[in-house]
Fold this sequence. Notes:
With 889 residues, chain A is of the alpha+beta class.
Amino acid sequence: xxxxxxxxxxxxxxxxxxxxxxxxxxxEFQLGDLEEEFADRAERDGxxxxxxxxxxxxxxxxxxxxxxxxxAQPTPVPDRLPPGDLMRSFQQDxxxxxxxxxxAPVATLAAIITFALGLGANIAIFSVAWPxxxxxxxxxxxxxxTVVQLIxxxxxxSFPNNVSPGDYFxxxxxxxxxxxxxxxxxxxxxxxxxxxxxxxxxxxxxxxDFFTVLGVRPIVGRPLQSGDSEAxxxxxxxxxxxxxxxxxxxxxxxxxxIALDGDGYQVVGVLPDSAGLGTRDADxxxxxxxxPGNIRRAYFLGVVGRLRPGVTVDAANQELAAIMRGAAQEFxxxxxxxxxxxxxxxxxxxxxxxxxxxxxVGAAACVLxxxxxxxxxxxxxxxLQRGREMQIRLSLxxxxxxxxxxxxxxxVVLALVGGFAGLWAATAMIASLRSLAPTLVxxxxxxxxxxxxxxxxxxxxxxxxVIVGALPxxxxxxxRGSLAVQTRDVTLSRSGTRARASVVSLQVGVxxxxxxxxxxxxxxxxxxxxxxxGFDLSHSLVANVSLPGGKYSSxxxxxxxxxxxxxxxxxxxxxxxxxxTNDIPLDNPGANMTFVAxxxxxxVGSNPKTVTPGCFATMQIPILQGRGFAARELEPVAIxxxxxAAALWPPSAGQTxxxxxxxxxxxxxxxxLPTGDVLTVVGVVPDILNVSLExxxxxxxxxxxxIGYFPPERVIVxxxxxxxxxxxxxxxxxxxxxxxxxxxxxxxxxxxxATATASRRFVLVLFAAFALVALVLSAxxxxxxxxxxxxxxxxxxxxxxALGARRGAVTRLIVGHMAIAIGAGAVAGVLVARLLxxxxxxxxxxxxxxxxxxYAGVVGFVGLIAxxxxxxPTRRAARVNPVSALRSD
Amino acid sequence: xxxxxxxxxxxxxxxxxxxxxxxxxxxxxxLLALVRLGPEAYGATIRREIETRTGRDLAISAVYITLxxxxxxxxxxxxxxxxxxxxxxxxxxxxxxxxAGSRALERAYREFRVMTDGLERRFGQR
Lengths: 889, 126
C-alpha cells in the first residue's frame, strides 16, 4: 500500500482509553510506544490496519491490570473496610469486575454488545438532536426575539399568515416590543454583475433596523441601520457565502459598489450566513423604507419583534390582540376575524423538527429500555448460577452490602465498556446522520464537542449500569446466609415467573410500538414517492448553466444562447426532448414574485417559471386551455396555473374549472405591482408540485424566456436511454457553443427527488434502525428467558414426565405462560401506539396513524419472530429425558 | 473459599517474584530481548522483538509490568530517553541489563539446556 502523504494519527478515543488506567510517566512511555508502533504499522500495512492494531492494544491495556499493587503487593480483600479505604475497595471491585468478565467471556461479550446497541442508539440521537434543540441561536438575547404573524380565522379554523403593510403599521404601535422590523416574504432573483461571471443572487428588502432587531453581528463593516433607506446612494449588505464566493472574502468590499440588475448599490457590510435564519434567507439585503400604511389585503411582510426586557410573550399577545380588535372595527372589510400573535423565535424555527427529534429520542430510549431489561434478566440468571459462590462469601463473613455493591460495580463496568463500544459505532453514524438531518444551518455550525458526547456516554452508561445491576444486587442482598446451599428449588417461585413474564410483555410491547411507527413512516415515504407532482421527469437529467454578464448582458443574447443550446441538446442521440428554465421543481426553487390582475390592487404571490417553448412537452405538462409558448413571442405573454388563475380571478359560483380556465385566456396581469408591466394570459396549465412533494401546489406563472424576466439557468433533457449516458454529450454540445461556459451540477431528476425527501428518509432510517435493534433484542430476550426457564425447570419437567405427564401437556405448561406474556405485550403495544398516534401522526403522509392493516401486520410479524425465538428452548423442554434430569444435581 | 484461593495464588506469585528466585518464563523472554536489542531496548522494541520472534501477541502493559518486576529484583535498570516526533513528542524508558540480570539469564539458560539435553529430537523439529 502507498504510504499516505499525511501521516495518520492514532484514534483519539482509543488513546484516551489506553491512557485511562495509566499514571504519570508510565502513561507517557506506554502511549509513546503505542504511537511509535502505530506509525510504523501505518507506513507498512496502511492506516486502517494500524488503527485496528491500535484499538486492539488500547483495549488490552484497559483490560490488563495496570500493574501497580496487583502483582507485586497482593492485598487480602477485607469485606469490611475502614471508611477511608472506600476508594481503594472501589478499585478492588472494579478490578474484580474485570476479572469476572474475563472468566465468562461469552456472557460478557453478549452484555457488552447489548449495552453497545442500547447506548449507541441514544448517543447517536443525542449528538444530532442536542444542537438542533438546544444550541444557542446566532442572535443576541434570543429569548426576547419573536416572530409576529397575523392569525386568520376562517370557517372555524385559525391559521397564521404574513402581515400586510397596513397591519404592520398598526402592530408597530404595540409597546410590548422594544423594536420591530419587517422583511419581504417574496425574495426576488437578480443578476449580480461586474465581478467576473454574472450570477443570480437572491435579493430581499428589509427595514433599516431589521438586523438590529435580530442582533446580528456583522463580519465586516456594519449591518443596515436607520436612515439607510433614505441615503442618497442605495446601499446593500452581503451574506458571508456570497462575499466569499464572488469577492474572495475581500475585506475591502465595504465601500465598493456592486451592480444588481444594472443598478449600483454601495456595500456597507457582510453578515454571517446565519443572518437569514428563520426569516426569508437571501444572498443580498437592501434597505426599504417603511411600506405605506394604507395597503391592506396584500400580505407579503414577515415581521420580527424584540420584546422589552421583562415583557412576556403572553402579555405582548394580549396587547396585539387588543390592537387588532381596534383595526377590525376600523377596517371591517379587510380585518374582520384577523388577529395577531407573537411566537418565540426558536419555537418558530425548530417547531417543525422539534417533535420529530423528541420522537426519535423517545424511540432511542425505548431501545435502551429493552436492552436494559435483557441485561437485567441476564444478570439475574448469572447471579443465580453464582448463587453458591455468593452463599460461600456470605458464610465467610462478607457483608451483603459489599456483595450487592460488587454486582452493581460489575454491571457499571460492563455498561461503560458497552457505552464506549456504542460511542465508537455511533460516531460512524453521526456524520451521516448530520448530512441527512433536516437542514438547520446553525446546528452544523455549532458542532457538539466530543467532550460533551463523551460525558453523555459516560453518564448514560453509569446510570444504565446501576439500574441493570440493581436487581441482582437486591437479590444478593436478600439472600439468606445459610450453608444449606445444596438444596435447589425444584420449581421456580411464582414471583420469579411473574417477573420474567412481565419483562417479556414489556419488551414485546415496546417493540410493537416501535415497529408500528417505523412501518407507518416507511409506508409514508413510499406514498410521498408515489405522489404525482403534475409533471413527469423520470429518465431526465438536469444541469445548471450560468451565463456571464458581459458576453450575455442583454435578454436577446441570453435568449439566442438558450435557443441554440436547447436545439443542440435535442439533437443528441437518446434525447427525446430538451428545454431551459429558471429553476427545477423540487430543487429549492427560489423565485417568488407578486402579480396583480388588471384592474385589481390585490397582490397575488406566485412562483414565476421562465421556460423555453419545449418545456411543457419535456416535463409532460398538458395545456388545459389556450396555447403554449411560440418560439418567438412578439408580445409579453404568460401562462398561468389553475390555482393562480383562480387566485387572480375568483371563479363565479357554479363555474366549472374548464369554463373558468377558458374565461381566463386573453386577460391581462401586471408584473409585481398594479403599475407593473402588462402580460397577456395565453394559456392555462395544471398546477405542479414545485417546492415539495408533500405540500399543496403553489400558484405558478409561466413566462417565455424570450421576454427576459427571470432568465433561464437550468436545462432539462428527457432521454430514452439511461439518463447519465447523455451527460458527456451535453457537455461537449456546450463546449462547441461557447468554450468558456461550464455545465454544473449535472444530476438525474431521481437524485433531485432523493434530496427533496432527505429529511423523511432521515426519520425513516433512524426509526427503522431503532425498531430493528428492538426486535433483535426482544427476540434474544424471549429466547433467553425461555431458555432459562426450561433450564431451571428441567428437573420439574423430568418429575412430571416420570409421573406420567404427556410431553405436549408439559411443553404447554412451560410455553403457555410465555405465550400469554407475549400476547399481552403485543396487545399493550397496539394500545400504546394508538394512544401515541396523535403524536407521531405528523411524521406520516396522507395515511391514518391508526391504520389497522399495519397494526395487524406488525403484531403478526412480532408473533412470528417470538415463535422463532421460542423454538429452540421449547424443543429442549419437550425432549427432556426424565432419567438424566432427575439424576443431575 | 474462592477468594481465599485467589489470595493464596497471589502469595505464591509474590514469593516467586520478589526474591531472587528463578526467572519466570516471560521474564526470560524479556531479558533475552534486552540482550538482543542492546542499547536500543525499550517497551516498543522489546514488545516487537518478542512478537516477531515468538509470534506471541503481547500487550504493551504486560511488558511494562515485567520490566518493573525485573527492575525491583535488581536485574535491570532504566533511564529516561529523549522524546521523538514519532512518539508524538513523548519520552521513552530505555532499559539496560545489569550483571545480576545476565547471571540470572545464564543460569536459566544453563538449566534449560541441561534439562533438554538429549531431548532435541523431540523438541528440535518443526
